[in-house]
């Protein structure tokens, strides 16, 4: 995505046009300590990954600039979720270079060699990256409030009372303050996913990853989750969203990438890519999604 | 089984009563079973060689009551030791470190592979290997020293033997519990920035323990009766004391009945408590295991 320089400016313009009253000041630079000035939040070059003789990623090139929303679509098995999980180190990168928040994910350069990260380094790295899962993955033994306060208390070392106070603010932000003391199983799928988003936001991340956040939801619950994500995008959050919601990608995404067979087949502005896909595979995928079939 | 008793409306507007099904086979099988069981009970109860008055006399004998108390003590302490140690061994067993997980596997193999009886006698006779137990700072004279025979009484060797043995079995239960916790919980914990140890302590173990709690009742009930093996090391538990009485007066059957009645009472109480434990944690355990699975997708609809 070599036109990334144009991203934030264009984004600011659009916010002023479409959402009067929302914030228009530039987002503070939160790219992390290792980032060179002007370095993108995500910079993937020829990223490769596989296991058990199956190649999952075959050389992914991908860039995300601060404040941008990048959406990723593609058939299942195309490697889009695996790539997302590489971004916060849940899956290992086995070839190429993946720089996120100014660090080469999984390795640190020292004395002319790259040394593998310790679990502690992975943990510290992931504090700045929020992740939202397809199946919510809320901590089943904790209330919604404790789920949101969990990271600040156990990872950042915040006092529990203070963390719960802030957690309540996050729950209000996703419209669930009234459900703060319910356990995950007492909430609908849409509510669970909104709690999961609040849980990720409580860590004040510089980057948010969404792994098909609405795929496990009943159709009538999809909109409440997308609405929260729209709000996040409007606030200038840097987001990578793997999704099947073509409409959402077209409306909120600054960029859209189409994955197939472990590579980015096509990327560009959502409006252009959705209206006039250049590759046959993209065309076939889009028409099957629009026909309402499960993308395969 | 629900059986219809309400009359069925007939064609002419009258209601026709429903007859009860005759189940001759069921009556016959029940009668035969009752007859056999009653005959066996009669043989024991009416046995002229069995002195029921002696059973009643010894039922509340101070030595028997002491034994009951010691049995409860050993059971509770050994179970507590086994549960704590079992969790630790399970965590080691699942460690990425091959040495730690190998040693945990070895522990489980050793303690499951040798009879409890052998282990009890081993601990009781530890003095043959180590006449003194010494706890001191290396290369100094500062420390503590005990005579092994004074430490390894019947009671402590019983507690150690039964506790270490239970730990081996319980470690496998805990491991299954840990592995039953949804993989997504671990991923969410890592994504929040937790280290593997913190993930285990804050997220996985609290959920695994809720899954494990119901079966621990079973372990305790089993332990209540395994303590009877302690009589080989003279642990002064119920069975030891009962055997010491019958060795002097030869009322073997009577004292076995006394001991059995007490074991059955203790088991009944433990079963009652286990039932409450399962009601408290059982339904939650099912939810935890399947979180993110089919039930989690169905439940929200029911709750909404």
TrEMBL record, chain A:
Biased composition (Basic and acidic residues): 1-30
Alphabetized UniProt keyword annotations: ATP-binding, Nucleotide-binding, Transport
Positions of region (Disordered): 1-40
Keyword Transcription regulation among UniProt keywords: no
MF (Gene Ontology): ABC-type amino acid transporter activity; ATP binding; ATP hydrolysis activity
Acyltransferase in keyword set: no
InterPro entries: AAA+_ATPase, ABC_ATPase_HisP-typ, ABC_transporter-like_ATP-bd, ABC_transporter-like_CS, MetN_ABC_transporter-like, P-loop_NTPase
SMART domains: AAA
ABC transporter domain segment(s): 42-286
Pfam families listed in its UniProt record: ABC_tran
Similarity comment text for this entry: Belongs to the ABC transporter superfamily.
PANTHER family referenced in this protein's UniProt entry, alphabetically: AMINO ACID IMPORT ATP-BINDING PROTEIN (PTHR43166), PHOSPHONATES IMPORT ATP-BINDING PROTEIN PHNC (PTHR43166:SF4)
Name listed for the protein in its UniProt record: Polar amino acid transport system ATP-binding protein
Higher taxonomy: Bacteria, Bacillati, Actinomycetota, Actinomycetes, Streptosporangiales
From TrEMBL, chain B:
Protein name in UniProt: Polar amino acid transport system permease protein
Subcellular locations according to the entry: Cell membrane
Classification via PANTHER family: L-CYSTINE TRANSPORT SYSTEM PERMEASE PROTEIN TCYL, MEMBRANE COMPONENT OF AMINO ACID ABC TRANSPORTER
Membrane topology: Multi-pass membrane protein
Superkingdom to which the source organism belongs: Bacteria
Record SUPFAM superfamilies: MetI-like (SSF161098)
Domain ABC transmembrane type-1 intervals: 68-274
Main subcellular location: membrane
Native organism taxonomy: Bacteria, Bacillati, Actinomycetota, Actinomycetes, Streptosporangiales
GO BP, one annotated term: amino acid transport
Pfam family membership, one: BPD_transp_1
UniProt xrefs under InterPro entries: AA_ABC_transptr_permease_3TM, ArtM/GltK/GlnP/TcyL/YhdX-like, MetI-like, MetI-like_sf
Entries under Gene3D superfamilies matching the protein: MetI-like (1.10.3720.10)
GO molecular function: transmembrane transporter activity
């Amino acid at each position: 995505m070599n036109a990334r320089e144009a991203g934030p400016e264009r984004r600011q313009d659009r916010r002023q046009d479409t959402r009067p009253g929302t914030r228009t000041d530039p987002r503070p630079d939160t790219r992390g300590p290792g980032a060179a000035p002007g370095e993108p939040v995500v910079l993937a070059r020829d990223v490769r990954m596989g296991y058990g003789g199956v190649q999952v990623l075959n050389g992914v090139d991908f860039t995300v600039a601060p404040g941008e929303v990048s959406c990723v679509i593609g058939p299942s098995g195309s490697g889009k979720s695996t790539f997302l999980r590489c971004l916060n180190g849940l899956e290992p990168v086995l070839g190429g270079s993946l720089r996120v928040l100014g660090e080469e994910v999984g390795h640190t350069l020292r004395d002319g060699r790259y040394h593998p990260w310790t679990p502690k380094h992975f943990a510290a790295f992931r504090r700045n990256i929020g992740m939202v899962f397809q199946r919510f993955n809320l901590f089943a033994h904790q209330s919604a409030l404790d789920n949101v306060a969990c990271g600040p208390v156990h990872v950042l070392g915040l006092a529990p009372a203070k963390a719960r106070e802030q957690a309540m603010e996050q729950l209000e932000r996703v419209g669930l303050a009234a459900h703060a003391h319910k356990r995950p199983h007492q909430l609908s799928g849409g509510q669970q996913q909104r709690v999961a988003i609040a849980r990720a936001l409580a860590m004040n991340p510089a980057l948010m990853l969404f792994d098909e956040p609405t795929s496990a939801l009943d159709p009538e619950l999809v909109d409440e989750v997308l609405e929260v994500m729209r709000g996040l995008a409007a606030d200038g959050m840097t987001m990578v969203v793997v999704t099947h919601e073509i409409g959402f990608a077209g409306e909120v995404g600054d960029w859209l990438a189409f994955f197939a067979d472990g590579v980015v087949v096509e990327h560009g502005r959502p409006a252009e890519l959705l209206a006039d896909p250049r590759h046959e595979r993209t065309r076939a995928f889009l028409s099957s999604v629009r026909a309402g079939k499960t993308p395969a | 089984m629900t059986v219809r008793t309400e009359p069925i409306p007939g064609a002419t507007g009258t209601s026709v009563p429903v007859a009860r099904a005759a189940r001759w086979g069921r009556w016959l099988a029940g009668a035969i079973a009752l007859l056999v069981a009653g005959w066996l009970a009669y043989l024991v109860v009416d046995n002229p060689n069995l002195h029921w008055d002696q059973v009643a006399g010894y039922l509340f004998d101070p030595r028997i009551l002491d034994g009951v108390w010691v049995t409860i003590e050993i059971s509770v302490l050994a179970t507590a030791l086994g549960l704590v140690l079992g969790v630790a061994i399970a965590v080691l067993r699942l460690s990425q470190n091959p040495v730690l997980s190998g040693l945990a596997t070895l522990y489980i193999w050793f303690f499951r592979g040798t009879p409890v009886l052998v282990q009890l006698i081993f601990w009781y006779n530890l003095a043959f290997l180590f006449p003194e137990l010494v706890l001191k700072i290396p290369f100094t004279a500062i420390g503590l020293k005990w005579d092994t025979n004074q430490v390894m009484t019947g009671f402590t060797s019983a507690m150690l033997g039964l506790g270490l043995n239970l730990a081996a079995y319980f470690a496998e239960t805990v491991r299954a519990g840990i592995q039953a916790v949804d993989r997504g919980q671990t991923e969410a914990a890592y994504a929040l920035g937790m280290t593997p140890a913190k993930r285990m302590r804050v997220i996985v173990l609290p959920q695994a323990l809720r899954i494990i709690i119901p079966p621990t009742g079973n372990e305790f009930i089993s332990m209540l009766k395994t303590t009877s093996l302690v009589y080989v090391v003279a642990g002064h538990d119920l069975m030891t004391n009962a055997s010491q009485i019958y060795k002097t007066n030869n009322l073997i059957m009577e004292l076995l009945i006394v001991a059995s009645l007490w074991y059955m009472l203790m088991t009944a109480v433990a079963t009652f408590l286990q039932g409450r434990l399962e009601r408290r944690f059982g339904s939650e355990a099912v939810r935890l295991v399947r979180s993110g699975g089919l039930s989690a997708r169905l439940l929200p609809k029911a709750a909404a």
